[in-house]
Amino acid sequence: MMQQTPQPPPRRRIVPPAAAAAAAGQRTPTVENPQRPTTLEPHGIGADVKASKLLNAGLVAASSPSAAKFGICVALAIATIALLSFNIIDTEKVFDVGSNTLKSVKTTFDGESKDSGRPGSVDSTQEKVFKQDEKVEISKQNVEPSFSVFDEAIKLQLDAILSLLYSGSIDAALSKCESLIPENPYSGRLYLLKGIALEKQAEKKRSNEILQKAINEFKTAAKLPQSSPYVAQEAYTKAASSTSFLGRTASPLLKEAVKSFPENQTLVRKLVVAFLTEGKNDAAVKFIKERLSKDPDDAFLLVHLGFVHNQRNQFGEAIETITKGLISTDEAAVHDGRFYNSLGNAYLRTARPEKALEWFSKGADRGVFLSKYQRSLYNADHPLRAQAWWTAKEAGPHYVKAVQALEGAWKDIQKEALSLLDAKSGLFEKESEGLSKEGDWRQFTLYIQGRKMTKNCEKTPKTCAILDKIPDATSCKRGQIKFSIMQPETYVWPHTGPTNCRLRMHLGLIVPEGPAIRVASDTRKWEEGKVIIFDDSFEHEVWHNGTSQRLVLIVDMWHPDLNAGDKRSLTPI
Fold first, then answer.
1. E strands, 23-146, in order
2. Nearest 5°: CA angle at 132, between 126 and 137?
3. Mean of the pLDDT values across residues 491-512?
């Protein structure tokens, strides 16, 4: 049987403040996932079909005899609105809730994500897309703002190219562009449309080489002096998005764009995001502060600055800037789970768990979290059962079988884990996510994101042979399997896992008196040879008040409510 909160030995006790704050509740009830489905934008290869349709309709209406009947301005407005919506923002920010880090995850047509080399999917993405204001500010002109005089000269041909793109005749559209460019070298829109055609062709053929050609055309349109402001800004945006898609740095291009169009808030925001996804936090802070000197109340910039402050353990500054941003606007791009998590974390790190829970509750009320305790950001697109602690029976037959296999072989697993500890080379790696306040917490990974770490499994053949018979664990692209060792006087801050698509099992291998784990409001401890199961998308913290090391095997498995299609389509985390 699992025991309740452990009693510490007579030595220095680590007091987990969040555990004390959560102690008012006993067990977390089972509730249905209340969050709306997390739907995501495509990667931005080609224009949005609806926008394309609206654009085509607007341009045809603007050039038809009937336009005079209802007003040319209305027709042009339809076309312009559609053009504004052509900008598909695909800069993704994958936020690890535990480590409070920002990583760029881009899957190329070669099928590999550039941040980790893991298998990827172009067509199916469950990562959180960071939405931005897509409006492009265009100065008023006597002619249609998105057309230069050079574009106007071949407007009918440009309309025809758009019609071809909308109908899916990509090769014909590309051929038309190529035939027109020699005699119309100053039409920025022509280069932009050629880039879009190449972009669509790259998606169809899954070719990075063709996508690079599209980027080159976008750059030409962006830098052509004769391009209209709209075309230049749109081209910069598309070039940056496709560059980022290929796993390359887009910030130099966006810096150039912002220099040319300093009032374009879409480009400004994209540059901030690019700096952060590329790990250029110093550049991000410098740029944000420069912009805030002109507009100190820009909520988008404030919350991003606070995000970096939290990463740097500058918790007072994080609380000040994020709070100011959140209370000043209702904009969805500002009220994002990343910023609520950062603010709550800053309060937790400054020993104010009540304030942290207050902001987590506000985030849940806004729908950015599943609940005040369940704060994962990369969730299934349909409701899953949500409870902090599970039994194998509750989780279903796959879990029952897995628990039986692990508990039945726990002595063999323990022996192999101890052999790793005896190795002179120090095979266990220190936890690198900045989650531990003090002490020593290390791990040895066997599987990650559904991939077997072959060299490590060669050192633990019996353990991996057992795991290979648990496919919902070894195939879990949103989880990992690892040995975890924790030394006495270690404390791990309250944190949440990134996704609700998995449950986490701990098999106790060496369990002295002293260590304990709190998930939501319920605190428990391990037993040797026994498995505990919890949902790590709920807030949890760990402390070790004992006198000797604690060793467990961590095994992530797909959430039992996911079907086979879900498991295939979900991208790795």
1. 31-32, 94-96, 101-103
2. 150
3. 97
Q: Distance between CA atoms of 99 and 449, rounded to whole angstroms? A: 17
pLDDT at residue 271 above 80?
Answer: yes
Distance (Å, whole) CA 128 – CA 318: 22
Token pair of 369, please? 């979290």
Residues β-bridged to residue 510: 551
Cα torsion 228, 213, 120, 427: sign: negative
Condensed to tens digits (0 to 9), the pLDDT of residues 113-135 reads: 333 332 222 223 223 323 333 33
Collapsing DSSP states into helix, strand and coil, what is residue 512?
coil
Structure tokens at 251: 């910030």
Residues 6+ apart with CB under 8 A from 186: 148, 150, 224, 226
Across the beta sheet with 540-544, the strand order is 436-438, 490-495, 540-544, 515-519, 522-524
DSSP 561: T
Euclidean distance between CA atoms 365 and 34, whole angstroms = 11
- 3 state SS of 436: strand
SS3 at position 444: strand
State whether residue 346 is helix, strand or coil.
Answer: helix
Q: pLDDT category, 20, cuts 50, 70, 90?
A: low
Q: In angstroms, rounded to a whole number, what is the distance separating the alpha carbons of residues 506 and 521?
A: 18
Q: At what angle do helices 170-180 and 188-205 cross, to 10 degrees?
A: 150
- pLDDT over 70 at 166, yes or no: yes
